[in-house]
## 1
Amino acid sequence: MRITPMDIRQQQFTVKMFRGFDVQEVDTFLEDVAQDYEALMRENTLLKEQLQVLEDRTRGLEERERVLQQTLVTTQRLTEEMKESARREAALTVREAEVAGEKLLEAARTEEAVIRSEIMLLKRNRRQLAEGLRSTIEMYQRMVEQDLRSSPPEDASPGADPSASAEEE
């Protein structure tokens, strides 16, 4: 049971003849107590209201903190996912570059083999041409030598045209 300031003001005491209290003094004291009690009740109500406001604010701050924590966790997770995605993409790019490099290297090796083959073919053709040319020259040389051996040396006459005798043959 709570005592209100009105209860304090309306409190009546029995007065005894002997050793009794001064009624005026008791009433004044009760009025002072009632005023103090009333002030304390107002202050208590005000403090309760302030406490409620602070609790509401605290709940709001706790909610914000929870949202910020979730945002931070989400951001960290997304950052890690982005890093991992970038790593995978970089690894894929490197692998694609390696495959492209291997293809280029293989193409260069194939082209080198073709060029070496063509060089060998050209060397063989040159050697065959040189041998053919040498054998042709040797054949003509033998023919010239044979022709020179088979025909008697002609006396060179002063008025004879050497080109005319060549045409006669």
## 2
Amino acid sequence: MRVISFESRRAKEIGLLIEKSGGEPIIAPAVREVPVEDNAQAFDFAERLFRGEFDMMVLLTGVGVKALDKVLASRYGETAFRDALRKLTVAVRGPKPSSVMREWNVPVAVIAPEPNTYKELLTALEGRTEKRIALQEYGKSNPELIAGLEARGATVTPVQVYLWDLPEDTAPLKDAVRRIVAGEAEIIIFTTQIQLGHLMRIADRAGLSSEVLQGMSKMVIASIGPTTSEALEEAGLRVDFVPSHPKMGFLVQELAAQAAELLARRRGA
């Protein structure tokens, strides 16, 4: 089966996984992580951090916390941010920022369980007494998480580290739009919610938004997890498959085992 994936950072890896599972990969990277050119917000956060104005820092992504570390190291020295984190309560949304903390020898007090959404993080933070919270964001603000923390009496300071944009080369995305409209693929995989938004931006530019949504309604739609599924469902798309764990390997391998049945069910709907 022909499988469209919008994965960017691990595009080659997911392509190989699809091939090994018997599929024909169509890779259309949809996301480019763009460092914030004006780091004034990050430096303002750092000054407050070093003055001891926070009790807790919540880390949402491994890539994001590394980017923040790199930015702050350019002004304050290589270990300044890591040293400051050791003086705080550190909470992480999932395994990737947790892995970075282990690498830096920074203790982690709270880890959100799978599927590692803001909902699990809020639950994991219940009963915490820390009220001055810094929140490392990941390209898109999470108003639900902020509102949930503020409802408990916390003061939340978001720290934006990088933004998401379309890739510099949008030709593969344009080709994916064409294939979806022409019915030239059977399966479509989303590994983050922003991929859908960027796909639809390209479709909008071509005047093919409704055609793309109609085309996807005839395909098996696979989602990495609940946050991505929610975005797809809000766009009126039915998610056919979510893996047992929100990992790329589980996604491709488990999807391959069920693909024929899912496609038959989709076409019979």
## 3
Amino acid sequence: MEKVYLCLGGNVGDTRQYLNQAISLISSRIGRVASQSAVYQSEPWGFNAEQMFLNQAVMAETELEPHAVLERCLQIESELGRTRSGNGYEPRTIDIDIIFFGNQIIDTPDLKVPHPLMHRRNFVLQPLCEIAPNLVHPVFGLTVKQLADECGDSLQTVRLAL
């Protein structure tokens, strides 16, 4: 079993419902969801959008290989209405990013783990810090908490009440 850390987010439609559905599908298709953060509201990162994002981090225990997890994440996104125009960052019903896959470092054209931008994004680091503050980034050698403390992202990310 390998621990896979995922960041979920979206800003189109009933985002809380999409997060819940995604977690349920992750649990049934990727592996048991052993922990999940609260939901966080954040400003769009990398583009302008009218709607704020909701984000959440989860850790699942999986027997799948990394590329199989990626394929299942993409299938879940598609089933939950995610469409990709190929024009970069854009509003979406759901996005599922693989942040960490155990201690593995993966650099292929379609999959990069640890996620190459995670250390620059409060909307990833804050929820992840809630469930895995002492997890060490295998490239930087810093914990998630240290990365969160050093993150220069000025966009607001707020933990929402249940």
## 4
Amino acid sequence: MKAVFIYNFAKFTRWPSETWTKNGTSLRICSIGNDELSQALVRLNGRKVRELPVTIEHREESNNLDNCHLLYLARSMQHLMLEINKSIRTKPVLTVSEITDFSKQGGMIELYRINSRIRFKINLQAAREAGLDLSSRLLKLAVDVKR
């Protein structure tokens, strides 16, 4: 179910137009670290977002993440969260994680579960700093939006 949330986050995000000339013709969803959600992302491979095929890439290292369009950080990467967020802060990479306080620490979308329901928080300031435009429809669904 959470993989569907990530797919929808991509659908409701606008990247700068030059993103597609620099980084190819597929929407790259990268994951770093290992958890249940990073493994479930494989199900999105080949789907389309605005006519672009989705490509899933699992990364072992925290370098060269700026060629991803969406980056999922597994909980196992909490120790590198601040470093990763800082390294791609101004790059058009939508960052998503289930790490507690991810959105407070510079991440863009923080997924969490409450009363067996999946919810999310958005750090709109971080998204704007990276040149990303999040749909108002997405912002309305968020439990908390940091502006």
